[in-house]
Q: What sequence folds into this?
């Protein structure tokens, strides 16, 4: 009654979660294959995460960025260790903010060098967030509708079509920004060859390559960062969703020469990287690193099972999978929910699966059984 109705919510109230399961207010159990949209990477009530969060709440929740913050250093080091080059991290609170920071950093990088380069090439069906910079970077009309004018400086190309990218490069182009697997857009994978061509183009033209890892990052695809499947070397990556295991946190990671352009006072966030969020992120990263082989193994098993179903094209990698149906999938989501399985429908006809990264074969079998019944 008092909450603005900008979401169409499913008719269920979850009150408790444990591992890969959720429980509603009538005590009914559900297998969670959405994880709060790729957020609850360690599942629900993970003992080590709960312990770390509770103990941090007792010690110190927040101090602001007016002061030194050792928890940020600890988490940043963990994130950089997995990055291809030496880099540095900026912390914020969400995916859209991480992308805002990336867009600002790209502009600042060239401005500091006296170059008038500010345009960023992004891709159709991509999704980068809802604030004006990220929204403008999101090349989907339906998200812009009613909110124009968009921020200036974005050009839209087609995924897996290098010609469409080359055509857009001019003397004002500063960077190329993409998701290696588009999440909201329907679990659309970049081809390896395409990404290598994008990388070469960036090198030839002196452009920065920004990979939005908000959904693909932190183990989701079976590698710690999604770009690692493709042998590319981004200048900037952005993170959020799975990083805090449910505690809001976002991050931007940039190669050192790029990162140094976010000088004191140039950008900031009140909440960004507070002790609570960083402590949660630290535990998530440590646990996810241990889970990587299991994510690949269970992900591969899940993919095979989905293919066996023969209900549509299977897309994605690791534990970020989609099943493209020939019809709308809204109804399938409701039917699955009735049978105790939580799945998501994106891009109209793609059933999307984002189970917690702790998921095991037996849970996949349980989920596929429900899918078999309803499809
Ligand atoms: C979800 C998502 C975002 C936006 O993240 P918020 O935390 O909702 O702002 C940005 N990029 C990608 C790839 C996403 O999946």
A:
């Amino acid at each position: 009654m008092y909450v603005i109705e900008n979401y169409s919510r499913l008719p269920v109230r979850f009150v408790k979660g444990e591992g890969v399961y959720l429980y509603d207010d009538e005590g009914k159990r559900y297998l969670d294959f959405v994880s709060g949209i790729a957020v609850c990477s360690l599942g629900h009530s993970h003992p080590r995460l709960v312990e770390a969060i509770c103990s941090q709440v007792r010690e110190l929740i927040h101090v602001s960025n007016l002061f030194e913050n050792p928890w940020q250093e600890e988490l940043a080091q963990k994130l950089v260790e997995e990055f291809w080059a030496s880099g540095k991290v900026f912390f914020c609170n969400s995916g859209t903010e991480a992308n805002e920071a990336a867009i600002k950093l790209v502009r600042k990088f060239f401005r500091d060098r006296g170059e008038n380069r500010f345009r960023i090439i992004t891709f159709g069906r991509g999704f980068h967030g809802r604030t004006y910079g990220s929204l403008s970077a999101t090349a989907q009309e339906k998200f812009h509708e009613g909110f124009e004018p968009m921020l200036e400086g974005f050009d839209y190309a087609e995924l897996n079509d290098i010609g469409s990218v080359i055509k857009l490069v001019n003397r004002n182009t500063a960077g190329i920004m993409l998701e290696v697997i588009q999440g909201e857009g329907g679990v659309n994978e970049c081809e390896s060859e395409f990404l290598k061509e994008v990388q070469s183009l960036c090198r030839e033209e002196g452009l920065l390559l920004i990979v939005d890892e908000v959904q693909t990052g932190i183990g989701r695809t079976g590698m710690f960062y999604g770009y690692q499947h493709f042998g590319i070397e981004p200048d900037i990556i952005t993170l959020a969703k799975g990083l805090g295991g449910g505690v809001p946190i976002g991050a931007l990671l940039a190669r050192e020469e790029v990162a140094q352009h976010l000088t004191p006072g140039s950008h900031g966030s009140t909440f960004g990287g507070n002790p609570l969020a960083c402590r949660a992120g630290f535990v998530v990263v440590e646990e996810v690193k241990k889970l990587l082989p299991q994510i690949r193994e269970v992900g591969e098993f899940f993919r095979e099972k989905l293919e066996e179903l023969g209900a549509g094209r299977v897309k994605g990698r690791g534990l970020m999978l989609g099943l493209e149906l020939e019809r709308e999938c809204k109804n399938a989501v409701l039917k699955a929910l009735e049978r105790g399985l939580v799945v998501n429908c994106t891009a109209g006809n793609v059933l999307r699966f984002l189970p917690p990264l702790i998921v095991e074969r037996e849970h996949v079998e349980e989920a596929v059984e429900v899918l078999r019944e309803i499809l």
Remarks:
- The pocket of pyridoxal-5'-phosphate is lined by residues 94-96, 99, 127-129, 179, 183-184, 212, 214-215, 240-241 (CB under 6 Å).
